[in-house]
Amino acid sequence: MNKFRRAVLWCALVLIILLIVLSIYGAFAGAERAKGFFNSLPLGLYWSALTVMLIAGIGVFRRLVREPALLLIHGGCVLILTGSMWGSAAGHELRKKLLGIEKIPGGKMAIFEGQSDNHVKAEGERGMKELPFHIKLKDFRIEYYKPEYLDIESRQGQHWQVPVEIGGEFSLGADVGTVIITKAFENFKITFEDDKSAAYDDPEPGYNPALEVQIRGPDGGVTTDYVFERYPGHVHPEDKFLLSYHRTVRDYISELAVIKDDKVVLEKNIEVNHPLHFGGYHFYQHSYDEQGRQYTVLEVVSDSGLIWVYAGYLMLCIAVFWHLWLREFAAGRARVRSE
Amino acid sequence: MEVKYTLQGLLIYLAMAAYVAAFVRRLVGREKSGQLLYTFGFAVCCAAFAYRWYSVRHVPMQNLFEVFLSMGLLIYPVSSFCERVLRVGGRCADMLIGTIVLFPAGFVFSAEPQRLPPALQSWLFAPHVAVYVLSYIFMAKATFQASCQLAGKPPCPDGKVLPAEEATYRMIRAGFPLLTLGLVLGSVWGKLAWGDYWGWDPKELWSLASWLVYVGYFHFRYMFGKRHPRINSTWAVAGMAAIVITLLWVNLSRLFSGLHSYAA
Predict the structure, then answer these.
(1) What span, in angstroms and rounded, lies between the C-alpha atoms of B259 and B22?
(2) B128-182: per-residue pLDDT in tens?
(3) Domain boundaries, chain A
(4) Which residue of B has its CA nearest to A283?
(5) Which of A31, A33, A20 minimizes the C-alpha distance to B202?
(6) Do A38 and B200 touch (CB under 8 A)?
(7) Mutation target vs B (from A300, A320, A337; most B CBs, 10 A cutoff)
């Protein structure tokens, strides 16, 4: 290996070690600060230098061209770096200045049920930006795992987990009694008429899940309690049991429609792991109205550069297996056969 | 320390006992009975894994308990494959590694079944975790070989298996593609679930750091070949240290809170 090639390899090694150190620093800094740090101007220079070094390596080392797998590995890394720089906020800004192409790199949009919107609160910018189409939220819902459970804890420390089945009777033991869940509410409200209270499920917007629970003691005495999902630890001093009602979320689903030129051009239910892709943007389920469940919050992400990154991933994966596995294991199989 | 008085716990302890017994038998030169015990331990691990899968109703790789259980299961096939196909020895050490990785599953991490949160309900969940677990086993074996090389004690002096430095290289060659695939699958999954293929999360950055250590190893070994075996081995050990931090410290320490915290 001549001196020039050795120098190039040393440079590559230094860049690799530097990135290891920077990654460890970023891990200690936390995701938010690390994101800012790795997208800063000095790091932009580092990414550019790394890309140039990879390209230079392909030019300098003939082996990288002669062996297709090695070429794919290094070419794949170049594509990943180029694609991610192209898709970064700085890449979007640069394209706007040089080519006049304006695209929102990323942001959030809140849409109420039954309404459509095209305004995006772009990341790190004041004011709203507009998409060239509208997104309509037809419905937002949260699905829960079944069965749901009611947790019961006695003051003596005994614990029971009762599946939520309306009308079903569950024994807590001969000396404790039985429990029956008589009603389930999605939006619990209570009215007072003639000094009597009555619980009901309010169909108006709102969200207050609750259970009506009857506990029958061994002496036949019945007490009725209400257990609220959003207010755990709701207990009176005279209560014999601490009741809690907690549901495990299975999925968050927003039913969306894309409207362009007053026509619905696409409909999709988005959920975690299943985003919507339209017009150069991905739309993700981000959060929701925790109080009334009336609106959803979508994360909007530009897809610029993504195809390059994925192409780089594909090249890298195929090539590492080709280079490090296929030849090695083929030789290994031949050895086993010969023995 | 959490002792598990359940069928799940019993199976793990039985597998651990079999692995330890196999290790001891091999040490005293009783190779045949050692191998039988190792196979028995593997069979019990299979039963423990299948039982867990049946209990939680999803591929049991959600949390650290399940990940370590999977490692205890995979050590045996990896061990056999390495010895037969790759000519890399260290089966005796693999029995010990099997016991070590089952220990946290048996005594440290909770086996409380958990339902999959929405982010984990993806076709990428099982392959992403499985390839990482498999790569970690290869890298653990590489580290053992590298440590033997650093200590100046060849793991197996007979001519059937490779010397430590070459065995380390071969193990890293086997583990690195899996490590790469794990990183890429995680990135693709991150894009689908969170909107970003790279979120600068501590777990992501530590996994990148571990991947880069092995990239550095390959470049260094290409530059110098076997002329600096101790430095080659040091790269391998450093890679494993980064993996241990990625797998354990990031999930267990409050220092690195992030998107992967549910894996603890």
Answers:
(1) 40
(2) 999 999 999 999 999 999 999 999 876 655 567 888 999 999 999 999 999 999 9
(3) 2-97+305-338, 110-142+250-301, 146-247
(4) B195
(5) A31
(6) yes
(7) A320
